[in-house]
From TrEMBL:
GO molecular function, one term: RNA methyltransferase activity
One GO CC term on file: cytosol
Primary gene name: mettl4
InterPro entries cross-referenced by the UniProt entry: DNA_methylase_N6_adenine_CS, MT-A70-like, SAM-dependent_MTases_sf
Protein name: Methyltransferase-like protein 4
Similarity section: Belongs to the MT-A70-like family.
GO biological process, one term: methylation
Region entry Disordered, spans: 60-91, 411-431
Start-end of Basic residues biased regions: 74-83
UniProt cross-references to PROSITE patterns, sorted A to Z: MT_A70, N6_MTASE
Pfam families assigned: MT-A70
Length: 431
C-alpha cells in the first residue's frame, strides 16, 4: 500500500512500496532462457534515519530554531555569510517561505501524527547499514553518441515503437534511441540492454533520448491525460556538482506539450524552491502551452522518525519541494463538460521519507489517480525511472531501473517459466 494515509491536508506515502508493486510478478531473461524472480527495490535507499540537524528521535515535527535549542541544549549551527545583506533572490525566497510556512508545518504535523498512530514512523530499520548503490549512469553520454546516427525517415516514423523482447528472448535488436520500446506484457522483465541488466515494468513504454531527439514521442500517436515532468533546472549547486546537465528555462517552452496532451490533461511540474522558477512556470511556461494553473502542492521530506530532513527555516535547504498543477486547455473546444472535470484542491502536501539517491522523486500515480481517472494515459518527461502503465522519456530514463538498485531473488524453486507462460507473456510489436 503506497498511500499510508489521506486527509484534508494531503497524503503520507510510501514510495518504495509503490515501486515494488510494479515488479510482481517478474521474469528474468538470460541467454534466451527465462525464470521467475522476486524483485524488490533496495531498502537502504529509503532509510533516512536522521535529519540533517540534531533533534532527538521521536521528537515532534517542528520548524523553529528556538524549539531546537530547547531540545538539544545547543544553538543550531549557522553557515557564515560573506555578505550581511540578502540579495533579491534570497529576499523573494524568504517571503515565499513565510507565506507557506504554516501550511507546511501544520499539515506535516497532522499527517505525521496520524500515520504514527497507525504504527509507522517508529524510526526503526530492518536492514543492516549498507552502502547505497552507486551505478555509474552513462545513459546521457550514450544519447550524445546516438546523435551521430541518422534520423529515422519520415516514412518510417509511422512505426515508431518496438517490442522489448524478441521471441527468443533477445534484446540486441532494440533501438532505444529513435523508437519507443514497449513491454506490453503483464510481467516485469529483467533484460540486458547495452550490456547492462535493467528491470522493465509491465505495460510500460520508454524513449531514451535527449531534448533534440524527442520527435519519436510525438509520432507515437498518443495523447496523454496526465503529464508529469521534473526538469533539470539550472542552479549553482547543479553546476558545482556536475551531477547532471541542466536545461535553460527558455528551452522548456520548446517541449511539444500541446502535441502530447489530451483536452483537460493534468500537467504537473516539479519546481525548485527558487521563486524565479515558480514564476517562470506560472507566468510563462504554462501560458505558452495553453495550460491553466489550478493548484500548488508541496512534497515534504521527513525521516523514518517523522522529523523534517532539514530545518524548516533553514536559509539554505528546505525540507520541501513544490509541484505546480495545471489543466491543458485545447484551442478548439473538444473537451468534455466542466462538470466531468475533477477539481484539484490547492496547497496539498505529499509527505514521505525521501530516497537517499539524488534526484529520485516519489511516484505520483496513486495520488493523482482521482484527478485523471484509473484508465488515464500517463507520460513522464525528464524521467529517470519507469512506471507500470506509463510512457517515459528522458536521456536517463533507465537510470533507476538498473539491477544494482534492486534485490533479485529466485521465486519459488527458481524453475523456468513454462512454454505456455512464455506464450502468454510474449511482447508483440504493434501491427
Amino acid at each position: 500500500m503506497s498511500v499510508l494515509l489521506q486527509s484534508d491536508q494531503g497524503w503520507f506515502v510510501d514510495p518504495r512500496s509503490l515501486i515494488d508493486r510494479g515488479y510482481s510478478p517478474c521474469i528474468r531473461w538470460r541467454d534466451t532462457q527465462k525464470s521467475h524472480v522476486e524483485c524488490r527495490f533496495n531498502k537502504q535507499c529509503f532509510q533516512i534515519l536522521k535529519s540533517h540537524y540534531s533533534v532527538p528521535a521521536g521528537a515532534a515535527v517542528d520548524g523553529g530554531n528556538a524549539d531546537m535549542l530547547q531540545k538539544t541544549g545547543k544553538p543550531p549551527k549557522k553557515r557564515k555569510r560573506k555578505h550581511s545583506e540578502l540579495n533579491q533572490g534570497e529576499l523573494d525566497s524568504q517571503a515565499f517561505h513565510e507565506k507557506v510556512r504554516s501550511v507546511i508545518l501544520e499539515g506535516t504535523k497532522s499527517l505525521v501524527d496520524s500515520v504514527r498512530s497507525l504504527g509507522h514512523l517508529n524510526g526503526g530499520t530492518d536492514t543492516a547499514k549498507e552502502p547505497l548503490p552507486s551505478q555509474e549512469c552513462s545513459l546521457a553520454a550514450l544519447c550524445e553518441m546516438a546523435k551521430e546516427l541518422p534520423l529515422v525517415d519520415e516514412e518510417e516514423q509511422e512505426c515508431c515503437s518496438q517490442s522489448l523482447v524478441a521471441e527468443d528472448g533477445c534484446t540486441s535488436h532494440v533501438d532505444l534511441f529513435s523508437r519507443l520500446t514497449e513491454n506490453r506484457t503483464d510481467w516485469a522483465a529483467v533484460v540486458t540492454l547495452m550490456g547492462e541488466e535493467y528491470v522493465i515494468p509491465p505495460h510500460s513504454a520508454f524513449l531514451l533520448s535527449d531534448f533534440t531527439r524527442i520527435q519519436p514521442l510525438v509520432h507515437y500517436g498518443r495523447r496523454f491525460d496526465l503529464i508529469v515532468m521534473d526538469p533539470p533546472w539550472e542552479n549553482k549547486s547543479v553546476k558545482r556538482s556536475r551531477r547532471y546537465s541542466s536545461l535553460p528555462s527558455s528551452q522548456l517552452k520548446q517541449l511539444p506539450v500541446p502535441l502530447l496532451a489530451s483536452p483537460n490533461c493534468l500537467v504537473v511540474t516539479w519546481v525548485t524552491n527558487r521563486p524565479s522558477h515558480l514564476r517562470f512556470v506560472r507566468d510563462e511556461l504554462y501560458p505558452h502551452w495553453g495550460v491553466e494553473v489550478v493548484a500548488e502542492w508541496f512534497w515534504v521530506k521527513v525521516t523514518t522518525s517523522g522529523q523534517f530532513v532539514f530545518p524548516l527555516d533553514s536559509p539554505h535547504k528546505k525540507p520541501y519541494e513544490m509541484l505546480v498543477l495545471g489543466r491543458y486547455r485545447a484551442p478548439v473546444d473538444t473537451s468534455p463538460s466542466e462538470a466531468s472535470e475533477v477539481p484539484v484542491e490547492d496547497q496539498r502536501l505529499i509527505v514521505s521519507v525521501p530516497s537517499a539517491l539524488h534526484s529520485q522523486k516519489p511516484s505520483l500515480s496513486d495520488v493523482l489517480k482521482p484527478y485523471v481517472g484509473a484508465e488515464a494515459k500517463c507520460l513522464e518527461l525528464f524521467a529517470r525511472s519507469l512506471q507500470p502503465g506509463w510512457t517515459s522519456w528522458g536521456n536517463e530514463v533507465l537510470k533507476f531501473q538498473h539491477t544494482s538498485y534492486f534485490t533479485l531473488t529466485p521465486a519459488d524453486d527458481g524453475a523456468d517459466v513454462s512454454k505456455d507462460e512464455a506464450a502468454d507473456t510474449q511482447v508483440f510489436s504493434p501491427a
